[in-house]
Design a protein that fits this description.
alpha/beta, FAD/NAD(P)-binding domain, six-stranded mixed beta sheet, 14 helices, about 35% helix
């Protein structure tokens, strides 16, 4: 069997995971990334047990690669600091057999990149289109054309390849919220803030401890789409500066130059499939979801590992059937999570005082065990499908 070649559009977590998974199965991989260099800034990501099991399936130690990843707890608080619900890291690890790990996203990306050949990632190579008319894809990039047996569209939430191949799809839907994110350096060995998300009226603030004492912090607010304050830190102080400790002190430490802001979107409707011929979509390009369940990156990792698994037993001629099987394996799970994340966001973004009070009361009255049981299908839901070629559905396009 001649070595198969995969071209991956996008060097995010999903694209890099797909590249590593295929490389370890003997594929030659080329990752085309439109940025001219790896990102030196970013935010945290919490890898749930389902994502860690997916990484295990390809022999990649995400905790080691990310550099002393920190087991994460889960908790919700009111703006006065009162706990609404809380589950510590050890309870999560016992229930799911794996902890939740909080890692710095650029460090995880570097670890994945290090698992690839030095020449695999092409920075400054923006994918502009794919010509698949004759069954052998030609990938058009700003750095030249590439031929491939497989093309993976991991080109993000605004995926140009999704728009090109699904022109009738309604695209993205604004959730009504914007989000600010940054990573704060350590304030010293005595700083140990509790990991939590605090809910107010149409506003949230989250604290996630990372390795080396750093803190990933984020905030959300219900605002018109495109809202961009002139002074973002002053905006955050106005919104959250009277909330419980240590939020005011953390806000004072924010470097405005390192503060990211993005409006939160998800897909307005599911894609009909995640493949077309020899082209497959994964991650945000396939099923963009709001971050309310912390599953966006985790589902991209699942996508990548399942895709590589289904391609493992195929030669170049069997790629279309394997991609059809990938669609069959992934569409229902990821779309259910997309819808669930949307509903969770609506609950967190309530603004009416009576609705907020009722929400907080309901959350506080829910036993921790019941809260965790509601997450079982997320955290225990990853599995590898059968790879029998005869059982794979025929490609639809």
């Amino acid at each position: 069997m001649s070595q198969r070649h995969a071209v991956v559009a996008g060097a995010g977590i999903g694209g890099l995971t797909a590249a590593v998974a295929l490389h370890r199965r003997g594929w030659r991989v080329t990752v085309c990334e439109r940025s001219t260099q790896p990102s030196a800034t970013g935010a945290g990501i919490v890898l749930a047990p389902n994502a860690l099991r997916a990484f295990d399936a390809i022999g990649f130690d995400a905790g080691l690669a990310a550099g002393r990843a920190v087991p994460a707890a889960m908790g919700l608080r009111r703006t006065d600091g009162r706990w609404l619900n809380r589950a510590d890291a050890s309870a999560l690890a016992v229930r799911y057999g794996r902890p939740l790990l909080a890692v710095y996203r650029p460090t995880l990306a570097d670890g994945l990149a290090d698992a690839l050949p030095d020449t695999a990632i092409h920075y400054g190579a923006r994918v502009t289109g794919v010509d698949d008319a004759h069954g052998t894809p030609v990938v058009r990039t700003s750095a030249g054309d590439l031929t491939a047996d497989l093309v993976i569209a991991a080109d993000g939430i605004h995926s140009p390849l999704r728009r090109a191949y699904f022109p009738g799809h309604p695209g993205l839907r604004y959730s009504g919220e914007t989000a600010w994110r940054t990573v704060l350096p350590s304030a010293g060995p005595h700083e140990h803030p509790a990991p939590a998300e605090t809910w107010g009226r149409g506003e949230r603030f989250g604290i996630v401890p990372l390795s080396d004492g750093r803190l990933y912090v984020y905030a959300t607010a219900v605002v018109p789409e495109g809202h961009r304050p002139t002074d973002a830190r002053a905006e955050l102080l106005r919104r959250h500066g009277s909330w419980h400790d240590p939020i005011p002190a953390l806000l004072e430490r924010i470097d405005p130059a390192a503060l990211l802001q993005h409006d939160l979107y998800d897909l307005a409707a599911p894609l009909p499939r995640y493949h077309c011929g020899r082209l497959a979509w994964l991650g945000d390009a396939a099923h963009a979801m709001t971050p309310n369940l912390g599953q966006g990156g985790c589902q991209a990792v699942e996508d990548a590992v399942v895709l590589a698994h289904l391609l493992d037993a195929t030669d170049a001629a069997g790629v279309p059937a394997a991609l059809a099987a990938y669609s069959a394996a992934r569409c229902a799970r990821t779309d259910a999570i997309r819808i669930r994340a949307r509903r969770a966001g609506r609950l967190a973004a309530l603004t009416h005082p009576l609705a907020v009070a009722a929400r907080d009361l309901a959350v506080r009255a829910t036993p921790v065990g019941a809260t965790l049981r509601a997450l079982d299908d997320l955290f225990d839901g990853f599995s590898l499908p059968a790879t029998t070629p005869a059982s794979a559905p025929r490609p639809t396009a």
